[in-house]
Design goal:
Length: 431
């Protein structure tokens, strides 16, 4: 009796705080639908658990020992009724909160486009339907979201898409979080369909904001980031592991600090992206690092690439009207030159010049800089160019070596045939 009274009191407080907030369970679709929770008071797994017990839905369980919630149905977040909806997993009171969803998670768009409408012409007020994992300002909060696809029906995470109609909205913000399947085994990965039909994927098709930082995303059966675009999104310092396709270039043009491990395709070309820059990324044990139809150029800066199953990247020429496009992969590494005197003291203002041994349109004839007060100068050197040829899987590859010349007044020192093999190498020169 006391427990029931407490639940009624908590529910009453919840209603007072957010009078329009709504959480319903639809038995026909087996879905808990959350809408109209403001950013200041977001919906949380704990609130859903309270309501589940209050209304005897028997769809949510909680293990306080592991701080784990199991939602045994679909979860929908947000609506298109001119309201904002925020859902939070992990906070300063629950540093390692875990949520397991045995169904689809659908972050709904705030607007479905009517026939003849174009999203870029919509001027009306925008609304927010957002799932947030973790806290941007606190990397000690490390939540986990797992999707149970043990039935092989394709349970997945959908951000704004999953409709034949065009839509607007749906947001994901994930900080220092883990997103993956409950069981990372064949037939049970996120979005994998084993009972017939077509597999789904983590899709960001109509989203208007994506923030993924310091996360690990693993076990995705198909396209992990389809629809992701740098105009509304940013992905940094994130590990993609055991994903069939990690990055789909449908508008993405810059990624930093990401790791691609044991993926089918680490980076796959798609529409809308012509050039992609990857900085300080790692490629480890992928089947294919780069599959580049529709991409014209990929630039890797200070990236580490370990062996792939099918050579160091796959290149395929493609046709655009009457023109054949031969995609290029450019690999560049930063070199730091430290200039000191014979007493070990740094020399300020030393002129450092790097000259390529071979001429190429992609390489300046001279790359120069002057050392700072600590005797350092940092230069970016082209290591390798790989260009697609008419024969798929056989790109033309060129490596570049340099002559490094350091001058201080009348003093001069040279290093010949320097090859920028490793990222961020430091070379010390004594004058």
């Amino acid at each position: 009796m006391m427990k029931k009274v407490l639940l009624i009191f908590l529910l009453f407080c919840h209603v007072i705080i957010s009078i329009n907030a709504a959480v319903i369970y639809d038995k026909l679709s087996d879905t808990i639908w959350v809408s109209d929770f403001p950013e200041e008071i977001p919906c949380t797994p704990a609130r859903l658990y309270q309501l589940d017990r209050m209304y005897d839905w028997e769809k949510i369980t909680y293990d306080p020992d592991t701080d784990t919630y199991q939602i045994n149905c679909n979860l929908w977040i947000g609506s298109d009724n001119h309201t904002d909806t925020y859902f939070q997993i992990g906070n300063r009171q629950h540093f390692k909160e875990t949520v397991i969803v045995r169904g689809n998670i659908f972050i709904k768009p705030y607007r479905l486009l009517r026939k003849g409408e174009h999203y870029w012409k919509i001027k009306e007020e925008k609304y927010i339907n957002r799932l947030t994992l973790g806290v941007a300002e606190n990397d000690a909060v490390k939540p986990t979201l797992k999707i149970d696809n043990s039935t092989g029906k394709g349970n997945t995470l959908i951000i704004g898409g999953a409709s034949k109609k065009y839509a607007l909205g749906g947001q994901l913000c994930a900080y220092n979080a883990v997103i993956g399947p409950l069981e990372n085994t064949p037939g049970k990965c996120i979005g994998e369909v084993t009972t017939g039909g077509k597999g789904e994927f983590i899709t960001m098709g109509s989203s208007d904001l994506i923030r993924i930082s310091g996360c690990r995303i693993y076990g995705v059966a198909s396209l992990t980031t389809y629809g992701f675009n740098n105009t509304f999104g940013r992905i940094t310092d994130t590990v993609f592991e055991d994903c069939r396709t990690a990055i789909v270039c449908s508008g993405v043009n810059y990624l930093k600090g990401c790791t691609f491990k044991n993926c089918g395709y680490a980076v796959r070309g798609w529409s809308f992206t012509k050039k992609l820059t990857l900085e300080q990324c790692r490629f480890i044990g992928n089947r294919i690092n780069f599959y580049l139809p529709y991409l014209e150029q990929v630039l890797c800066i200070d990236c580490v690439m370990q062996g792939t199953e099918r050579s160091d990247g796959i290149f395929a020429a493609w046709h655009k009207k009457d023109k054949t496009i031969y995609p290029k992969l450019l690999i560049k590494n930063h070199l730091t030159v430290k200039v000191i005197n014979h007493n070990g003291q740094p020399i300020k203002g030393a002129v450092v010049k790097c000259s390529p041994k071979e001429k190429n349109a992609a390489v300046p004839r001279e790359i120069t800089g002057k050392t700072n007060a600590n005797g350092f100068v940092r230069l970016l050197l082209l290591k390798t160019i790989k260009s697609a040829t008419v024969i798929s899987d056989q790109p033309d590859s060129k490596n570049f070596k340099y002559t490094i010349t350091v001058t201080v007044g009348s003093k001069c020192s040279c290093i010949n045939n320097f090859f920028p093999k490793t990222p961020r190498k430091i070379v010390t020169i004594v004058l």
